[in-house]
Amino acid sequence: MNLFVNAFLWIFDPANWTPGSQSPLPIQDRLGEHLLYTFIAVLIAAAIALPLGFYIGHTGKGRQFVISFTGAMRALPTIGVLVFLTMVLGYSLVGTTANFLGTMIALVLLAIPSILAGAYSGLESVDRQTIDASRASGMTEMQILTRVEIPLSLPLIIGGLRAGVLQVIATVTIASYVGLGGLGRIISSGIGLNDYDEILGGAILVTILALLVDGVFALIQRLTATPGVGGAVETGRTRLRRRASGPLATVGTPIHEGNGP
Amino acid sequence: MNWLFSNFDMVVELTLNHVRLSIIPIIAGFVIAVPLGRLAATGRAARGVIITSTSLLYTIPSLPLFVILPAIIGTKVLSDTNLIVALSIYAVAIMVRAAADAFSSVSVDVKQASLAMGYSKWQQFWRVEFPLAGPVLLAGMRVVSVSTIALVSVGVLIGSENLGYLFFNGKQRGLLEEVVTGIVASLLIALVFDLVLVLLGRILLPWSRKDRTRRSADSETVSLTVTTGGAA
Asked: Topology relative to the membrane, per the entry (chain B) (predicted)?
């Protein structure tokens, strides 16, 4: 436990927060970089994945593609992709630009599958009868999407973003090894100096950051759940109930036939 | 392909080490997560506690976990044990959720029927619940296997010798072929493991083949619910 005390002493040491300190310090600069990279990567990933996910979820087209794509992405070793992209870009760009761009592309690629899965499975979780009712009451497809499907599935959509953000935060830590900033810099510098207080301090900072961001997203997920619907944040029990009631619902599913609950 | 031919021995050695480092966490994940998942399927409170705590563990990014663990369990940062324990934690975190879903998916009627036929709780678990949960457990194991193999390469940052070595060595020496070899070898291991798991499923769960539509629906549910988290 002494190790943790020392690590926290390292974190709270004012000298490590002094602006203009040497390389992996001050801590707030690395923290800022970490958040900035995460924000940019997730923003780009969401701009690509959300519309695609909505399209797939609304029309039911291409879901098999998404499932295999998600699986294949998970099999790719993160650092390998990172190193590969920075090297390929390095042939035509200056070192630092190649590193930054390569890392960003890798991060975007990593965040896409989670966000995509959240968006399309969220839309699919919306009760078919509700959608048919909206269609019957004269809503256009666009209205159904923006006024019925997206609001009802918001917790799952945000769940996808949450998973993507966490993945990116974790990967930015690793990206420090290809020369980018971020909190991983503190860990790698600690390893280089064989300074375990610094290593552990950096690791604790990343962990706290991840847990905090996760907590914020958990809160948003809870707040965006439509009152009375309760289905979107599924527990095993509600899913079971839904599955059990599946066959009944097939009566009114002209468009999404065979998609199941 | 020149680089690969002249360094074939090293690639094979790193690949074998990569396999060794992945197998233990995958099996440990299954063995630990199945009882926990069964426990989580008993009720809302149990599920809440177990799933929440394991998914919190999964939230911890991998590199920090690799260096924090030694301070908790006293392993050496550079030892393989450290890496294996960390990967097992992630495997359990993924698998518990899948196992909880798997056991919740077993129909209550079937369980009651087996009790009525005089099965003890123990028999009921082994002969009814476990086999019926099989397809969803298998789907969970496939996710665990793929993500563990991908994560092993992060271990190279704390000095473990596996395919991740090729990424950094390749970067330092400017050999793109070396990096690509590492990625492809890692994907190949993931593919072989996945095939083995599917094959095991075919042998151990022969009945699930007849019911193809349901099984694929189950595995999708797992692969989707399991995506919440971010070890990377």
From this structure: Multi-pass membrane protein
